[in-house]
Amino acid sequence: ETGVTQSPTHLIKTRGQQVTLRCSSQSGHNTVSWYQQALGQGPQFIFQYYREEENGRGNFPPRFSGLQFPNYSSELNVNALELDDSALYLCASSSRTSANTGELFFGEGSRLTVL
Amino acid sequence: RKEVEQDPGPFNVPEGATVAFNCTYSNSASQSFFWYRQDCRKEPKLLMSVYSSGNEDGRFTAQLNRASQYISLLIRDSKLSDSATYLCVASYSSASKIIFGSGTRLSIRP
Q: Measured between alpha carbons, how far is A25 from A16 in angstroms, rounded to an integer?
């Protein structure tokens, strides 16, 4: 077990709705990255948070937003859901040291279905 | 063009075979490279880092060619438990951006 927990594990939404996904990072880790993984694809980088500030962003529209809290847990918010947002959303925590060695510790993901 | 490209496979090889995966990256600013493994319906986990000098971890050998922007993973004496998707990863911007390829599926048959 990585010590990274995500909630909810599964959820179903309809187009146009909003969703919030949550992640608790591993103890001692101050960096959280979010990824979207569509079926049969690799994880796509959404953004990273370090000490409560966004510290890098992939090619996702502004309706994907996030937060990191003082305890380093994080939220991913997606507004105006589209069918293509259906995917597994992975949260990965790291320290600066582990990130530099490439080791991200992933949670088991939140599987979102948009109908 | 994707920043990290891999042959999606699937590779279906017999137990004991040697199999090699290749990966190319487009951003020459990429600084560090890794291979991750992802089992079906599980989260990705770090398999090994990739160094220019090449590095080995048991049956696994990784190689990086910066001039050609090419990364490889070799698995010798493959086991049934090696069946998984192998993800090629590049990072840059002081590790604030870690980019995954689409993955190569490997299936080892008895």
A: 29
Q: Which residues of B72-110 are buried (b: 16+ CB within 10 A; e: fewer)?
A: bbebeebeeebbbbbbbbbbbeebbbbbbbbbbbbebee
Decide if B95 and A99 are in contact by the 8 Å CB cutoff: yes
Closest in A41, A55, A109 to B43, CB measured: A109
Q: Which two tokens stand for residue B24?
A: 């190319």
User: Chain B interface, mutation test: which of A104, A108, A110, A111, most B Cβ atoms within 10 Å?
Assistant: A104
Subunit contact A2:B43, Cβ cutoff 8 A:
yes
Asked if the Cβ–Cβ distance from A107 to B34 is below 8 Å, we say no
CA-wise closest residue to B50 among B74, B18, B27, B26: B74
Per-residue pLDDT of chain B (110 residues; tens, 9 = 90+): 788 999 888 999 999 999 999 999 998 887 789 999 999 989 999 999 998 888 999 999 999 999 999 999 999 999 999 999 999 999 876 556 788 999 999 999 99
